[in-house]
Specification:
It is a single chain. The chain has nine helices and eleven strands. The protein is α/β, with parallel strands linked by helices. The protein has one domain: P-loop containing nucleotide triphosphate hydrolases (Rossmann fold, 3-Layer(aba) Sandwich). The strands form two sheets. The protein has a seven-stranded mixed beta sheet, sandwiched between helices. The protein has a four-stranded antiparallel beta sheet with strand order 2-1-4-5, covered by helices on one side. Helix 3 packs across helix 4 and helix 3 runs parallel beside helix 5 (about 140-150). It starts with a strand and ends with a strand. The structure holds adenosine-5'-triphosphate. Adenosine-5'-triphosphate binds near residues 21, 42 and 44.
Length: about 260
């Protein structure tokens, strides 16, 4: 039977010399869902994403993407798209050339590549600037190009690190709509961001990482529900609480489960 999970990790860990960046991470992210991956600066989010996207070798544990071990780099890379914090772009290419280049790397047939590139350029309001060099692009224009190249080949799983970073409100809304569309088409979206309303709106499940450890996980609605009183609090309240609680060893950090 095929696994219901697009992303699975067991005891995934990364140690840099004596610094433990990620410790024993267990993830199970369903196909076609949006997973909001939260955590304070330095919590280990980028390290986790770099391991799941095969860019960094774990020092412990195992993970599978769409059923394929991250040890099988080529097979995993075929299945994923990744928008890192700084999108990898060639400044001397135009936006359109950059996307054509990526479509070529992904072996997209020419006609499909052209159709996909043009429709995404149009959707992100980048069509009029597509023949300018990337070196002349604003931060937001580079970010839009980075997002398009991450989803161009219709990956099964897409990892987005702060996708709305540097985007104006209209473009940020487009990104939110694109994420919802991807999930509706059964693409799994692993979304790392500090912008909690975006996660609240889009995520099926939220995971909060703190000091390399998952300290809370569940659907946003459940996490926001106070168990004792039934009152609702904001996702920001939840975030502040679980990342502070875990900070105080005397409190005995517990994982808030609300699956
Ligand atoms: N190449 C490296 N060498 C040594 N330590 C590293 C390296 N990369 C990351 N770290 C450490 O690992 C921990 C996790 O870093 P990581 O970049 O994964 O955090 P993050 O959650 O993505 O943070 P942010 O929200 O600030 O982007 C930090 O303590 C960081 O200093």
């Amino acid at each position: 039977m095929t696994s219901p999970f697009a992303i699975e990790s067991t005891d995934l860990s990364k140690r840099y010399d004596d610094e433990i960046a990620v410790e024993g991470l267990d993830l199970a992210v369903r196909h076609g869902s949006v997973y909001g991956f939260l955590g304070p600066n330095g919590a280990g989010k980028t390290t986790t994403i770099r391991m799941l996207t095969t860019l960094l070798r774990p020092t412990g544990g195992e993970a599978k993407i769409d059923g394929v071990s991250i040890a099988d780099r080529d097979a995993v890379r075929e299945r994923i798209g990744y928008l890192p914090e700084t999108p990898p772009l060639y400044p001397e290419l135009t936006g359109r050339e950059q996307l054509q280049y990526v479509a070529g790397l992904r072996d997209l047939p020419d006609a499909e590549a052209t159709e996909r590139i043009e429709s995404l350029l149009d959707r992100f309001d980048l069509d009029e600037d597509a023949d300018k060099r990337v070196s002349t692009y604003s931060k937001g224009m580079k970010q839009k190009t980075g997002i398009i190249q991450a989803i161009l080949h219709r990956p099964k799983v897409v990892f987005l690190d702060e996708p709305t970073s540097g985007l104006d409100p209209r473009a940020a809304r487009t990104v939110r709509e694109v994420i919802a569309d991807l999930a509706a088409e059964d693409t799994t979206v692993f979304l790392s961001t500090h912008i909690l309303p975006v996660v609240d709106e889009l995520a099926d499940t939220v995971g909060v990482l703190f000091d390399g450890d998952l300290v809370a996980e569940g659907p946003p609605q459940k996490l926001k529900q106070r168990a004792e009183t039934g009152d609702e609090r904001s996702l920001e309240d939840v975030f502040l609480e679980v990342t502070q609680e875990a900070d105080l060893p005397s409190n005995g950090a517990t994982r808030t489960e609300a699956r």
